[in-house]
Every structure is written in structure tokens, then in C-alpha cells.
Amino acid sequence: MNIEAYLVNSFTANGTGGNPAGVVLHADKLSYGEKLEIAQAVGYSETAFVSQDEEADFELSFFTVTDEVDFCGHATLAAFSTMYQKGIVTEGRYVQRTKAGLLAVAIESNGHIIMEQKLPEYLGRFDYEVISELIGIESTVLESTQLPIEIISTGLPDLLVPVPHGYLDKIQVNEHLLSDFCKKHDLVSLHAFELYEKDSGMTASCRNFAPLFGIPEESATGSASGALACYLTKHLSGKYSNCFTFEQGRAMDCVSTITASVELKEQAIVKVMVGGFAHEAGLQKIR
Predict the structure, then answer these.
(1) Contact 255, 247 (CB under 8 A)
(2) Chain center to CA of 151
(3) Pairing between strand 189-195 and 278-286?
(4) What integer pLDDT is reported at residue 131 of this predicted model?
(5) Which of 64, 84, 107, 246 has the most neighbouring CB atoms within 10 Å?
(6) Comparison of pLDDT for 95 and 287, the residue scoring more
(7) Contact 19/78 with Cβ under 8 angstroms?
(8) Across residues 181-200, what is the average pLDDT?
(9) Which value, in Å, is the radius of gyration of the alpha carbons in the chain?
(10) Contact call for residues 201 and 245 (beta carbons, < 8 A)
């Protein structure tokens, strides 16, 4: 059996950078083991597999090189951008079935993809001292942000870690300790961020680490961007509007741009959306 995997960069900034994902269309007959083998052959942090669904427009499954995950934002973006470019879908609104639930995806005429994520779950906080040894930043430095370190899930449980401006690039992750920590607390990643000045045009610069899933660092993370939008809405509601722009991948020389927004009703978040552009980079044939 020959499989074609599209190689797509998601959350590109002016056509460059982004986070690579594999996309396999017409994946209905592939088994779990075959999907994992294909994802390993592609070698990216995630590969999306698109199948038909009786109720939703499509079913998407997501595989890292080690396992299946419930949801992946940048691979969703890659999949729907690929289908749009191939003429499988047109401008409009679609519903995808994922292990994180039924989620809407909107395609704009310019190819911009906006993905709805699950409503936020706030799953707990950690002391600065606990996180300090994981990322090599002194606990007093972390505490100076006066912001909590909190687990938030909008599809995947991510640990949101604010650092003062100027410290993001100084992070030195202990991958062994972080892997054990994520496994113990059922976390997918640690998502660190530093805030920009309000009028800079960029809300925050971010770094994402998921060594438990074979990802030392990721250049764009859609699910964690939705979680971060909810975090900022919760803790800094007076400083920001409900729309955010995040930069990620700077430390990897692969800058990505991710937009995120939330909708509020009576001060409660009722919708979480993450958007961006994607560009096809190649095609890999896998036997």
C-alpha cells in the first residue's frame, strides 16, 4: 500500500516559518498501527489523518511519532488548508470529529483557517519553586510576574508558565524532569510565554515543550494558544481585548504567527477560536 503524506507548514508568518505537520487524506481504512508507522515515517511532531464521518463533515485523528493524541491545532490547520487547496472543501464552515469532541472549522476566501476549540477547563496550579527546576529559571524571577502557573485545557492539558520579558529565550528545559512531570500530572506540554507591550501589535511570544511525546520544542502550537487566550482573558481581562496575536518559534529560527480569540457571555467564555495560514512544502510517498 502506497500512502501520500502532504508536508505542510502551519501558522506561517508571511509565507515563511510555521510548524510542519503531515496530512494524510482518505485515511478511512488505515489501522492505528499503520497511522503510527506513517507518522513515524513523516517524522513531524504531529500528522493528521482525514477520514469520512457519518455525522460530522470529517473525522480527524492525530499521531505524534510515539502515540495518538486527542487533538492538534496546527495539524488541523494543515489538514483543512490542504483540503481547501485540493478543492475538497471550499470557503465556509465545517465540523470535524476529534477525540476532543466535535469542533467547528471555518475557511475564509483567502485561505485563512479558524478553528474552534473546546471551552477551557482550569485544572490546577503549581508553585513557582516546582516549575523553576524544570525550565532553569529562578523561582523568584517567575514569581515577579505576579501571574499564576496554571494548567488549562481547550482540548489538551497544557501548563501555562509566564516569564518576565527577556527571559523566554533563557529557558533551559530539563527534558527528563519535564517528561516525568507531565506523565505524573497528565500534561501534554509546558507552554511558556512573555508578554509584549500593549501597542506592539503582538500579544506574547511563546515557547512550547512536549518531550513526553517526542517533541523537544515546537514552533507553533494551536491548542496551547487557545489555552493561553483563555488564561489572559481570565487573569488580565482589563489589559487586553478578546483578540490576541502570538509569536512562537523564535528560538528555533522558525517564527510562526497564531491568532486567537474568545467570545464572552456574562463574563464567561463561550467560544475559543484559533487561526492562521498554512503552506504546502512537499509530498512524501510512504510504502
Answers:
(1) yes
(2) 15
(3) unpaired
(4) 98
(5) 246
(6) 95
(7) no
(8) 92
(9) 18
(10) yes
Q: Is 5 exposed, middle or buried (0-12, 13-18, 19+ CB in 10 A)?
A: buried
223 in Cβ contact with 206 (< 8 Å): no
Whole-Å CA distances, 25 to 50, 51, 86: 5, 7, 11
Residue 207 bridge partners (DSSP): 192
Q: What pTM was estimated for this model as a whole?
A: 0.90
Amino acid identity at 219:
S
Q: What is the pLDDT of residues 209-245, one digit of tens each?
A: 999 988 899 999 999 999 999 999 999 987 888 999 9
| Three-state SS annotation for the chain | CCEEEEEEEECEECCECCEEEEEECCCCCCCHHHHHHHHHHHCCCCEEEEECCCCCCEEEEEECCCCEECCCHHHHHHHHHHHHHCCCCCCEEEEEEECCEEEEEEECCCCCEEEEECCCEEEEEECHHHHHHHHCCCHHHHHCCCCCEEEEECCCEEEEEECCCCCHHHCCCCHHHHHHHHHHHCCCEEEEEEECCCCCCCCEEEEEEEHHHCEEEECCCHHHHHHHHHHHHHHCCCCCCCEEEEEECHHHCCCEEEEEEEEEECCEEEEEEEEECEEEEEEEEEC
Q: Residues 132-178: pLDDT tens digits?
A: 999 999 999 999 999 999 999 999 999 999 999 999 999 999 999 99
